[in-house]
Design a protein that fits this description.
With 368 residues, this protein is α+β, with helices and mostly antiparallel strands. Helix content is 18%, strand content 42%. The chain has a nine-stranded antiparallel sheet. An eight-stranded antiparallel sheet has the order 15-12-13-14-26-25-24-19. A five-stranded antiparallel sheet has the order 5-1-7-8-9. Strand 7 and strand 8 form a beta hairpin. Helix 3 crosses helix 4. The radius of gyration is 25 Å and the shape is elongated.
Length: 368
């Protein structure tokens, strides 16, 4: 095998692979990428047995063939080459020779036959989706995914088709919940919802971030998801299990609702949380007519308070929250104002854009 390729093209493929390849894999081949050269160009494949990405790149192929080499080593080399292009040649014992200008490398490879085969997903019906809407849905929910590996059902986002081409995505870690519903224009042939794993979701976000306006397709088979855009495809295994009944957690609309400037609310929480407990990030929200007071009290550090003007006429109320959970919600919203609905000191807080519950976050209260 021998081919010449632009360094930027190969670097793009290897950058995509970095989040997927296993650095400390029990199977060394999983820290490699599979490079396959044909008359049509070069494909680069990364696969960790759960997530696989195949990207296509133009190249001048002198001799077709394939090899596998360390994704990190090759990425590091390509990042510092002196010329805009390079030549890769496979030599005896699966070594790869890399040449760019006067720079020359010879790195250890492995037999391409050892690289695991990606699952075939011809039976996954693909639906064209707007990349910008899908990217927004991921940003609005991914912060609430649980990192507790013992609760594996919550280690991803629930993807649930609704009526009229709408899709709902939901994530929760038991302390907060994020839900967003948007129109993705296509009909997904799913009996219920599926759970997209955290790692796969973040890799999907990275691919969408590259070019949100690019034409995208998404589909689901029995236990896997398939994503495609021009020159690239990704397959991932889904989490097998039943997502909890999230709708029971979302309170009905409350009469106690305040409107507050999102940026000022976020900054005030950040300031006051400096004197909250390191572990709990607990702050107290005290409401009176058109006034929100945020306080924190830490015996080891001291106390802090800040007052914000808000639109509120629901009677006095004091409730505690984890400031970081509220800030996470506010940081993924894009409206100038946000609505915060409250019941009593024991009820969850519901945060959404004013008049729009299609994108809603729920934060459980704390004793402060």
């Amino acid at each position: 095998m021998e081919f010449r390729i632009a360094a930027d093209e190969l670097k793009k493929a290897l950058f995509r692979a970095q989040g997927i390849v296993e650095r400390k894999a029990t199977m060394p081949i999983l820290s490699n990428v599979l490079v396959n050269a044909t008359k049509g160009g070069v494909t680069v494949t990364a696969f960790d047995l759960d997530i696989g990405i195949v990207s296509e790149h133009p190249a001048e192929v002198m001799k077709p063939g394939s090899l596998t080499v360390s994704a990190k080593t090759l990425f590091d080399i390509v990042s510092f080459l002196p010329e805009a292009s390079l030549t890769i040649k496979k030599t005896a014992n699966n070594y790869a020779e890399i040449t760019s200008g006067a720079a020359h490398y010879k790195i250890v490879g492995m037999a391409p036959e050892e690289f695991p085969k990606l699952p075939k997903e011809e039976n996954a019906p693909l639906v064209q989706v707007p990349g910008t809407a899908l990217l927004e849905m991921i940003k609005r929910t991914s912060f609430a995914i649980s990192h507790d590996e013992t609760r594996y059902i919550l280690n991803g986002v629930f993807f649930e088709p609704r009526e009229g081409g709408k899709v709902r995505m939901v994530a929760t870690d038991g302390h907060r919940l994020a839900m967003v519903e948007r129109d993705l224009t296509g009909e997904f042939k799913l009996k219920g919802g599926v759970i997209i794993p955290r790692k796969g979701l973040f890799e999907l976000k990275r691919l969408l971030d590259e070019a949100p306006e690019a034409e995208c397709q998404l589909g689901f088979a029995e236990n896997s998801a398939l994503f495609k855009k021009p020159g690239l495809s990704m397959v991932m295994r889904l989490i097998d299990g039943q997502f909890p009944d999230y709708q029971r957690v979302i309170p009905k609309e409350s009469d106690r609702q305040l409107l507050v400037n999102r940026g000022r609310f976020h900054d005030a929480l950040k300031r006051i949380a400096l004197l909250s407990s390191d572990k709990s990030n607990a702050v107290k929200l005290s409401l009176s007519e058109n006034l929100l007071r945020i306080t924190a009290n830490n015996p080891d550090l001291g106390e802090a308070k800040d007052d914000l003007e808000v639109a509120y006429r629901g009677g006095s109320l004091t409730v505690g929250f984890n400031a970081r959970y509220l800030m996470d919600v506010l940081s993924v919203m894009d409206t100038d104002e946000v609505a915060l609905e409250l019941g009593d000191e024991h009820s969850p807080g519901v945060v959404h854009a004013p008049g729009d519950r299609a994108s809603t976050s729920v934060v459980m209260p704390m004793r402060v």
